[in-house]
Design a protein that fits this description.
cell membrane; L-arabinose transport system permease protein AraQ; MetI-like; MetI-like fold; 2 domains; about 75% helix; MetI-like_sf; mainly alpha; transmembrane helix
């Protein structure tokens, strides 16, 4: 019995060590697959090849980006479109989510189901009708053609509805007893409590629209209305003969705003995604 008792902790220790090593290996592979391409992009942009093929540390690729494309205008266009779309999606998601969660009207469940069903429709299916509508409104080849169609968000509506449904309804009843209108109840009680959900909608909207390429390619024609992802294509040169370091330098520049938003928004994003998991 004593021999068995002595060997049990050793075996358990071996099993725990093997499990720990397996987790470290899996995490190391995930880290390599995630950060590997980013590090390669950064190193390649900082070490362009000269005429002899030799590589050296230099900012020449970044200087080349500013000389070939109007980076300031592209950044402004992307910032304007992304900022207005993110704020617009937060506003529409909050209003629609509150309506579906707290207001009772005929056909609300059917309408909410239709909104959720739109999430299953690829953008490529709806891009032609949307383009025809935008052109009919006289907004073709403008930044408004990128902003207005992106203001509604089915996922944001679903997310905010779930948040509002998780807030006790007794708060609304108490505010109604005090004489508050439905708008005042939404603005003063429900909206502040749903701030984590709004943060999730805003951060996801920013990352998605900032990196968007397909819609700007269809909706805009002139260079003055190009967003940053679309403008970076010209760095490839004719038939892809441009410098790879220059292209990757442009990619690094385009990642900076998204990285800043992530750094400042990771806490509310984490709180928003985990809200409701712990009572």
């Amino acid at each position: 019995m004593s021999t068995t008792d002595k060997t049990l902790p050793v075996r358990t220790h071996h099993r725990l060590s093997a499990s720990l090593i397996g987790r470290i290996v899996v995490l190391a592979i995930a880290l390599f697959l995630t950060l590997g391409p980013v590090m390669w992009t950064l190193i390649e942009s900082l070490s362009p090849a000269d005429s002899t093929g030799a590589r050296h540390l230099s900012l020449a690729a970044y200087q080349d980006v500013f000389s070939k494309i109007d980076v300031i205008r592209l950044f402004w266009n992307s910032t304007l479109v992304t900022g207005l779309c993110a704020v617009g999606q937060m506003a529409t998601a909050a209003l629609a989510g509150y309506a579906f969660a707290r207001l009772r009207f005929k056909g609300s469940n059917l309408l909410f189901g239709i909104i959720l069903a739109t999430m299953m429709i690829p953008m490529q299916v709806t891009i032609v009708p949307v383009f025809m509508l935008v052109r009919g409104m006289g907004l073709a080849d403008t930044l408004w053609a990128l902003i207005l169609p992106a203001l509604p968000t089915a996922f944001g509506t679903f997310l905010m509805r779930q948040y509002f449904m998780g807030i006790p309804e007794s708060l609304a009843e108490a505010s109604q007893v005090d004489g508050a209108s439905p708008w005042r109840t939404f603005r003063s009680i429900y909206l502040p409590l749903a701030t984590p959900g709004l943060a999730v909608v805003g951060v996801l909207a920013f990352n998605g629209i900032w990196n968007e390429f397909f819609r700007p390619l269809i909706m805009t024609i002139s260079n003055d209305n190009f967003t940053l992802p679309l403008g970076l294509v010209s760095l490839q040169g004719k038939l892809g003969t441009g410098s790879m370091s220059t292209v990757l330098a442009g990619v690094v520049l385009s990642m900076i705003p998204a990285l800043i938003v992530f750094i400042f928004g990771q806490r509310p994003l984490r709180e928003g995604l985990t809200a409701g998991a712990v009572k």
